[in-house]
Amino acid sequence: MTKVLLIEDDHTLRSFMRVLLTAQNYEVIEATDAKQGITLALSLPIDVIILDLGLPDMDGLSVIEQIREHIQSGIIVVSARDKENDKIFALDHGADDYLTKPFNAQELLARIRVSLRHRSTTITESVESLKIRDIHIDFDKHLVFVLNNEVHLSPIEFEILSLLMKNHGKVLTHHFLLNKIWGSQALENDVQTLRVTMANLRRKIESTPAIPEYILTEIGVGYRFVDS
Ligand code: CA
Separation of 31 CA from ligand 1 center, angstroms? Predict the structure, then answer.
């Protein structure tokens, strides 16, 4: 049974998640503060952790720092709408994804599924090609097809699309993408270059680039390749 650890001090929200997840056959373990959460995360074989960033005894971000290197579990952080910097920090320090309050049942379940899928696919990471909806990417031959028509991407566009598709469903931060593509000396103003590259990539793969169906912008955070 898949084990989900809820680290959340809000009683109502915790109950909502417990009822929902139990009905989906997840085993739910609950912690009401950071200390209890850390102890449980480090002592039980947990699959996914839902971590509230606003905890009474400790900042949720410190929780990530304390547990990430010791555990394999997926971590999904829950935060307020205006906390973009916290989300970015969490993602860059080992969280897999985030949910913005208020979120609905479907969003929570979708994030958990993505997190579990990425846990299980890290073992067989060397895929040769991927087809998601109408986009087919061949990593070996460096080819991309949209509805069976080949599209020509620049090396950087190809690199970005590869990263997004391999991590489909998951948000990738600007910082993560910049690091992967331009290396650790990437500068903050390279975010502008990333935006331009993304606009070009969308023009090539999206039928209506202004209303993208594949590569969604997570405002202030990064990009996500949607698979459904
Ligand atoms: Ca809270």
Answer: 12
In angstroms, the CA 85 to CA 174 distance is: 12
Quick: pLDDT tens for 45-103: 999 999 999 999 999 999 999 999 899 899 999 988 778 899 999 998 989 999 999 99
Tell me, which fold does domain 3-120 have in CATH? Rossmann fold (3.40.50)
- Tell me: the pLDDT tens digits for 110-137? 999 999 987 765 544 567 899 999 999 9
Residue 217's beta-bridge partner residues? Answer: 223
The fold adopted by the segment(s) 129-225 is Arc Repressor Mutant, subunit A (1.10.10)
Q: Report the separation in Å between the CA atom of 177 and the middle of ligand 1, taken as the mean of its atom positions.
A: 30
Q: Which regions of the chain does DSSP assign to beta strands (E)? A: 3-7, 27-31, 48-52, 74-79, 97-100, 129-132, 135-138, 143-146, 149-151, 171-173, 215-218, 222-225
Residue ranges near ligand 1 (ion) with Cβ within 5 Å: 9, 52, 54
Q: Listing from the earlier edge strand, what are the strands of the sheet with 3-7?
A: 27-31, 3-7, 48-52, 74-79, 97-100
CA of 100 to the centre of ligand 1 (A): 12
| pTM value > 0.70 | yes
Residue with tokens 């040769």: 128
